[in-house]
Amino acid sequence: MDYDVIYIGSGNASWQGGRFLRKAGLKILIIEQGLYGGACANRGCNSKAIVDSPYEVKALADNFEGVGKAGNLEVDWPSLMKHKHNVIEGMSSFLDRKFDEYDLDVAHGRGMIVDEHTVRVGDETFTTDKIVIATGLKPVIPDIPGKEYLHDSTDFLDIAELPEHTIIIGAGFVGMEFASILAEAGRSADVVIRGNMALKYFHQPYVQKIIEILKEKNIRFHFNETVTEVLSSVEIENPEERIHNVSKGVNTDEELRDPEAKVNNKAYKDAFTVKCESGLSLKGDYVIAGMGREANVEGIGLENVGITSTRSGIKVNGYLQTDVPNIYAVGDVADTGIAKLVTVAIHQSKYLAKAILGEADEITYPAVPAVAYTIPRIATVGVPAYVAEKSDEYEVHQIKYGKSYAPVLKNDKTAEAKVIVDKDLQIVGAEIYSAEAENVANMFAFIINKKITLEELDYMIYTFPSSSSVCLYKLHNIHYDL
């Protein structure tokens, strides 16, 4: 065999575990068609964090309206885009150097599984003991008339100027997070939702708080609406080429490095009409498809080895094995029933390395925190409130720590959490609504996974002022039944 393990895909789901296998003496090959590091590094998490940050700062500054704020903070989108590209453009080359440092071989091109032990990249063929599929997800583009006018999250994070009015189809992570950015930027948007709720995996009372904030800032919501058609009133060059690349999950290095190489990635005044099954008709400058993501498995040869997949991914067992025992699927492309987050992908990648080395039984998962980076943020970890509220096994305690400690929380008066405890008063879950929800969620993840008791938490001394300390302090009300 040429290799012990071949990974198809170069994101966190592959190299995080691959480096440990190489350190243990196994020979590793990583195959990548696009930029090294995959979606999160080059066109997902990192890009979104850079673009979101100044709007987060603006929202925090607005908390001091009338109590110290003078003037308005304006975010300059073109310079922000320039900064984003300066940071992101170096990510792939940085990871290329890291792969070299870890002594991981790399083949550039589309990896095609030929048989259980063979992978082809272009004209080259490699043999291996084990194959790991780590190809991630791609945006869902609805098959409707006018789909060529739709943009995905990568497009929006590359756009030269923010549209005055955007139509967003979907209210998951992409739809709601982008709506927050547009709202803070003073732009308007229509959000079209097929069902009756946004961010369905999060605590709905907190989601509703976000919706009310967005409504006040010219974001309109349309629930129970199905988009049937997108019309354009302007002639756009090569729209079919753009949508073909998006739907196939294809991004050339040149497209990702150069925003000007993106076809049809700009706004046109009232150029698009989105029509819905109910008769609702909306006009806007830019249309985003935020309808989720699906397994990116087209053209990698699953049919050659009898592996099937669904939109949710490739089904795997507790060892992350597919129906073919020496072929594995990890990260977002694996259908495990666990949240598809980069943190979960890293956990699976490290686990698989141990399993291949014979150092692990079936995979287990700790409580996984998830955050919607809206403004403000909402987060969830452990047993969700909607489950606890329907069960006699749990109690739900509301902690409005922002109301009590606004002066030390950057004047954030609305911060709160719902803490779920079991019959022994052991914390098993939390829902958080706060400008710093991501950090508070990490704190609760640690408490839940390490089973730290309320008595132990009450004994500890924390830094003050801080969002975590004031939230933790309020937990003593549960401990002492106050």
Automatic annotation (TrEMBL):
- What Pfam families has UniProt attached to this entry? Pyr_redox_2 (PF07992), Pyr_redox_dim (PF02852)
Residues forming the Pyridine nucleotide-disulphide oxidoreductase dimerisation domain are 368-468
- Tell me where on the tree of life, at the top rank, the source sits: Archaea
GO molecular function ontology, one term from the record = dihydrolipoyl dehydrogenase (NADH) activity
Main enzyme class = oxidoreductase
Q: Where is the FAD/NAD(P)-binding domain?
A: 3-348
- Which protein are we looking at? Dihydrolipoyl dehydrogenase
Record-listed E.C. numbers: 1.8.1.4
InterPro entries, per this entry? FAD/NAD-bd_sf, FAD/NAD-binding_dom, FAD/NAD-linked_Rdtase_dimer_sf, Pyr_nucl-diS_OxRdtase_dimer
Q: Which UniProt keywords apply?
A: FAD, Flavoprotein, Oxidoreductase
Query: Which organism does this sequence originate in?
Result: Methanobrevibacter thaueri
